[in-house]
Amino acid sequence: MSNNQFSTSRYEKRDKKRKTNIVLNTLIGIVLVLIFVIGSQLILGANQSEKTAKYNEQPDIKLASDEESNKEPAAETEENEEAEVEDPDASEEQGEEGSEETENTEDNDTAEEESTEDPFEQATITEGEPGSGVAETIENPAWEPVGTSQSEPHSAQYDKNSQDWKEMTKALSYATGIPESEMIIWHLGNNGSPNDAVGTISPKDQSAKYKVYITWVENKGWMPTKIEKQS
């Protein structure tokens, strides 16, 4: 065999071997790619299965919570209905209390309206004698007793902490129209009879001074009889 033939055959062997290696490497690469693709699909499929399983479990929890939430209002509704059936007197009491509050409010409004009225509107006013210290004498036939919480027989008490003092103060305010909270009492005492009293008062600004005569009306309280406006 000549050298040329020997070189050619050796070259052909190398070429075949190189081609064979290329094929093998290609196949190995394909196999690795397939393994990677299949493995990835398996991993992704497993994750997807877990997510699907979790997702399928969630509606059961929501439904359970929804059922509980639907049950609770029903129970509350039943309790409310029982309360409404079992306690009918409560609404009546509330209605009575509301009517009492309304009546009290109306009474207060009436008292305020009365306090804003001119206490001398229906009064007879007479000028005092010169030098008497009396500027005017005021008498009003519309005056009435102011009411009392005391029982008979009555005996006037001039202690500032007594019920009599409170009711006499109310009569002085009623006669002159000066609110009790704005009134100065200079003197309040007996007027010669157990059932008669007299008080000297003025508003806090001392813009005027009045001498108010009051008398006790049995079971009805103190009633103004005359006012002397001091000069």
By oligomeric state, this entry counts as single chain
The total number of structural domains is 2
How much of the sequence lies in strands comes to 15-25%
Label the structural class: alpha+beta
The tally of beta strands, per DSSP, is 6
Strand order of the largest sheet: 1-2-6-5-4-3
Radius of gyration: 55 Å
**What distance lies between the first and last C-alpha atoms, to the nearest angstrom?**
168 Å
Helix content: 40-55%
Tally of separate helices: 3
Averaged pLDDT? 76
Strand count, sense and barrel status of the largest sheet are: 6 strands, antiparallel
Q: Rough shape?
A: rod-shaped
H-E order:
HHEEHEEEE
Describe the structure in brief:
Pfam families: DUF1510. With 231 residues, the protein is an alpha+beta fold.
What does this structure look like?
The protein has 231 residues and is an alpha+beta fold. It has 2 domains: 83 residues; 111 residues, no CATH class. The chain contains 3 helices and 6 strands, in the order ααββαββββ. The protein has a 6-stranded antiparallel sheet with strand order 1-2-6-5-4-3, covered by helices on one side. A hairpin with a 5-residue loop joins strand 3 and strand 4. The radius of gyration is 55 Å and the shape is rod-shaped.
Annotation keywords:
231 residues; alpha+beta; rod-shaped; 2 domains; 3 helices; 6 strands; 6-stranded antiparallel sheet
Layout of strands and helices, then pairs:
Elements: H1 3-86, H2 88-116, E1 124-127, E2 134-139, H3 163-176, E3 183-190, E4 196-203, E5 210-217, E6 221-230
Antiparallel strand pairs: 1-2, 2-6, 3-4, 4-5, 5-6
